[in-house]
Specification:
The longest helix has 21 residues. Helices cover 43% and strands 10% of the residues. The chain has one domain: Thiamin diphosphate (ThDP)-binding fold, Pyr/PP domains (Rossmann fold), CATH 3.40.50. The protein has 292 residues and is α/β, with parallel strands linked by helices. The protein has 11 helices and 5 strands, in the order αααβαααβαβααβαβα. It has a 5-stranded parallel beta sheet, with helices on both faces. The site of thiamine diphosphate has 18 residues, from α3. This is Transketolase N-terminal section (TK). Belongs to the transketolase family.
């Protein structure tokens, strides 16, 4: 195998190592939320932290030192408001420096905006933030990969709330019509929107059946169980297969910090110094509980 392609494989950390990285990712997120003066989308960052870790540290074939490698997997963050979680997960993989994120996050002209911008931040594959756009862009990229005969995957992370957008389902149909087995969607199914519980606003259920009806293979997992995330990634069909896959990850908004979990008030917010210590202690306690 050519060196530049072999490097895309990267290390494959164990489940225990990935769990440690997810803890570090959450800690770094909380620190940023404790120092940044504006609001951070901390609830949906924490719900997706394990998914980001599994993708950037295990599943995605990407090389932080060769970001334009044509054979790399493409990752698109459709729930663009979770950008900071992606930046930190990528920094832990070697794409950016964490200090650079903390120093400039959310400032005018910073590369690290509240939503990701591929022009400002090379390594980011798509500019997102207006919900409902990531999957349509991913379909185009997957189609292009197919036409070129490339073997990479296109992976898109969506919020469950944003799948209330019609554009998501148009993209889902197009993916099936074009037999895009190189396309994988992960859904952060935390069952909350910005200010309400998902099912109160839109009848999402029977949610997995809806994806099946659109011709997708559906995998349902606990999105906080690293072993399940790794297994789902390991069992993805080959990129040259003909059916797109959606991995529906059952998650908890605010996961890891008890006073944020399932709390609608923590879709976005900021922690002062005192609450930061409280949040870090809660995170540590949650880890202790899970390792017992
Ligand atoms: C088109 C569009 N409409 C509204 C918003 C504002 N908005 C930001 S986050 C959010 C809630 C999204 O819910 P979900 O996709 O489930 O994300 P999560 O709960 O995981 O943060 C909304 C409505 C937006 N970014 N884009």
């Amino acid at each position: 195998m050519r060196d530049d392609v072999a490097r895309l494989e990267g290390d494959r950390p164990s489940v225990a190592e990935l769990e440690d990285r997810a803890f570090e990712l959450r800690s770094k997120l909380l620190h940023l939320c404790g120092t940044y003066e504006g609001a951070v989308h901390i609830g949906g960052d924490l719900s997706a932290a394990d998914i980001f870790t599994a993708l950037f540290h295990y599943g995605l074939r990407v090389d932080p030192h060769d970001i334009s490698n044509p054979h790399r997997d493409r990752f698109l963050l459709s729930k663009g408001h979770a950008a900071v979680c992606m930046y930190i997960a990528m920094s832990m993989r070697g794409f950016f420096s964490y200090e650079g994120i903390v120093d400039t996050y959310g400032q005018l002209d910073s590369a690290y905006g509240m939503h990701p911008c591929k022009v400002q931040l090379p390594g980011v594959e798509a500019s997102t933030g207006s919900l409902g756009h990531g999957l349509p862009i991913a379909v185009g990229m997957a189609l292009s990969g197919r036409h070129r005969g490339d073997a990479h995957r296109v992976v898109c992370l969506l919020g469950d709330g944003e799948t209330g957008e019609g554009s998501v389902w148009e993209a889902a149909m197009a993916a099936r019509s074009n037999s895009l087995g190189n396309l994988v969607a992960f859904v952060d199914r935390n069952r909350q929107l910005m200010t309400s519980h998902a099912e109160e606003r839109i009848a999402f259920e029977p949610y997995p059946d809806k994806w099946r009806a659109f011709g997708w293979d559906v995998v349902e997992i606990d999105g906080h169980d690293m072993a399940s995330l790794v297994k789902a990634i390991d069992e993805l069909p080959a990129p040259d297969s003909d059916r797109p896959t959606v991995v529906i990850c059952e998650t908890v908004k605010g996961k890891g910090v008890d006073f944020m979990e399932r709390n609608l008030a923590w879709h976005a917010g900021s922690l002062g110094a005192e609450d930061l210590q409280r949040a870090l202690a809660a995170l540590e306690a949650s880890r202790q509980k899970e390792t017992v």
